[in-house]
Design brief:
Layout lengths: L10 H4 L1 H4 L9 H5 L2 E5 L3 H13 L3 E5 L24 H12 L4 E5 L8 H5 L4 E4 L4 H12 L5 E7 L2 E7 L7 H5 L9 H4 L3 H20 L8 E6 L4 E6 L16
Parallel strand pairs: 1-2, 1-4, 2-3, 4-5
Antiparallel strand pairs: 5-6, 6-7, 7-8
Helix pairs in contact: 4-10
Length: 255
């Protein structure tokens, strides 16, 4: 028993089911312990993915979000409770994640991602998880990945529908190959609504993609888009072709 009266949880017990997976070996846990995952946005997607990353043994999380917890967040952003309303999301999330995984290193940035700050905020990240609801910042994040920063696991959830794809560092296709610029895409969760469990489904898949990338197992969702519709229960994966004229990753001629 610990001084608090609760049982001591050994790190080896936390990951016992993880290392039982095919292709995962105990020696790979060092990759997780040495990894840094940057969480850009601590809304519904970030709240769903961060606990799984922490529980799996990722050594360091960088939480980036300028927002504060609002009452309307509590229906889907599961790291927060009523007592957190008004608090910075990065602070409230860090407190919950440290309670879950006391050995976790957490860096908090209560600022928005921008063109001038991307390298500073994301530098050193092994993987970046997108939890944004602002198309302009998502364009910034996509361009940063294409410049060779780090793989970015993009996710989106609106209404009953969600999607996930991975843009590799310096890789193609990128988010703009699929959607073009998303700077003007409406972030109308407040109007269109969102089914609370949908962000859990999408965020959990994002965490899985990040863990697979760190461990070097499985097939990443690069060049593919995972789609789910919780209204009908349908899910599918579709290819994302490289767009030769993409203004982000299509080369100097396209730009």
């Amino acid at each position: 028993m610990s001084d608090s009266g609760f049982p001591v949880v050994r790190d080896v017990d936390r990951v016992r089911r993880l290392v039982a997976l095919p292709d995962v070996r105990p020696a790979m846990l060092d990759k997780l312990a040495g990894a840094t995952v940057a969480m850009v946005g601590m809304g519904g997607l970030g709240c769903a993915s961060a606990p799984y990353l922490a529980a799996a043994g990722v050594g360091r999380l960088v939480l980036i979000d300028p927002g504060r917890v609002a009452p309307t967040d509590l229906g889907r952003q599961i790291l927060y409770g009523a007592a957190d309303v008004g608090a910075l999301k990065v602070d409230a999330a860090a407190a919950r994640l440290r309670a879950q995984s006391p050995g976790l290193s957490i860096v908090r940035h209560a600022v928005a991602l921008g063109v001038d700050s991307a390298d500073t905020l994301l530098g050193g990240a092994t993987v970046v998880v997108d939890g944004l609801d602002d198309g302009r910042m998502r364009d910034v994040l996509n361009a940063w990945a294409v410049r060779g920063g780090a793989p970015v696991v993009f996710g989106g959830a609106l209404g009953y529908e969600g999607q996930v794809t991975v843009v590799p560092p310096g890789g193609r296709p990128c988010l703009a190959c699929l959607f073009g610029s998303v700077a003007d895409a409406p972030a109308e969760c407040s109007v269109a609504g969102v089914l609370g469990p949908l962000v859990g489904v999408v965020g959990s898949l994002q965490a899985g993609e990040a863990l697979k990338w760190i461990l070097g197992v499985g097939q990443a969702l690069t060049g593919r888009l995972w789609l789910v519709d919780l209204f009908t229960g349908a899910a599918r994966v579709v290819p994302v072709p490289v767009r030769a004229t993409c203004p982000v990753c299509g080369g100097a001629e396209a730009i």
